Amino acid sequence: MFERYAIFYTPPPGAFADFGASWLGWDSAAGCEVAHPAGLDTDLIKQPQKYGFHATLKAPFYLAAVQDEAALIAAADDFAAVRASVALAGLSVQSMGSFVALRPVEPSAELQGLAKSVVQGFDTFRAPLTDGYITRRRRTGLTPRQDAQMLDWGYPYVFDDFRFHMTLSGPVDEVTATDLAARVQPLVTPNLPDPMIIDAISVMGEDEDGMFHLLHRATLNG
């Protein structure tokens, strides 16, 4: 039994997944640490490391009392059986305010729709938010819409506030973000899938040390 669960996108085995695991130093599929690129300041990636290389679709949540891990995995397979994969024009390294991430080079209505369906479709597995969580989130300066989305769906940044991203750093200043993006772009470019297909959803579990593990990858077959 894990502490929390989440629904992420994680890449299939291959060069792209290997790049992400190495960059962050954590392979969520194998459940182990891996070596970073030489010379990387590991302080820059401490915050995203525990999640592994991923894009969030349904943010981490505690399981509702009436649910269990097996039911969550079965629901992921059921969901994936009727949802189509999503083709993207590509990914590029971009600054997202205070951190660096891989982002789609063009907007995708299909990707936004997939993310919305995941948020809504798996919400019955989520335990109610704690007062402490709500208070902490509100300290970050949520808009009224984000606050309402947090209360309704467990996370503020969903639907129109969702931005698909695969995080490559923790909080950094503007200069560091520029330098880091310049360093990582040539490393990731040879490993980017072509075409870039969001082909599955991944059920993730957070262990007692806060590290996320890939429990099941459900291929989108709809």
Give a quick summary of the entry.
The chain is α+β, with helices and mostly antiparallel strands and 222 residues long. The chain has 7 helices and 11 strands.
List the helices and strands and how they pair.
Blueprint (H helix, E strand, L loop, with lengths): L3 E6 L5 H10 L1 E2 L4 E2 L12 H4 L5 E7 L7 H13 L4 E3 L2 E6 L2 E6 L4 H13 L9 H8 L5 H10 L12 E2 L6 H15 L7 E3 L1 E7 L5 E8 L3
Antiparallel strand pairs: 1-4, 1-10, 2-3, 5-9, 6-7, 7-8, 10-11
Task: Please characterize this protein's 3D structure.
It is built from 7 helices and 11 strands. With 222 residues, the chain is of the alpha+beta class. Strands 4-1-10-11 form a 4-stranded antiparallel sheet. Strand 2 and strand 3 (32-33) form a beta hairpin. It is globular, with a radius of gyration of 17 Å.
Keywords:
222 residues, alpha+beta, four-stranded antiparallel sheet, three-stranded antiparallel sheet, 33% helix, globular
Q: Helical content, roughly?
A: 25-40%
Uncertain segments:
none
Q: How confident overall, as mean pLDDT?
A: 96
Portion in beta strands: 15-25%
Structural class: alpha+beta
* Distance between the ends: 30 Å
Strand/helix succession: EHEEHEHEEEHHHEHEEE
Q: What oligomeric state do these chains adopt?
A: single chain
What integer value in Å does the Rg equal?
17 Å
Largest sheet: number of strands, sense, barrel closure: 4 strands, antiparallel
Number of helices: 7
For the biggest β-sheet, the strand order reads 4-1-10-11
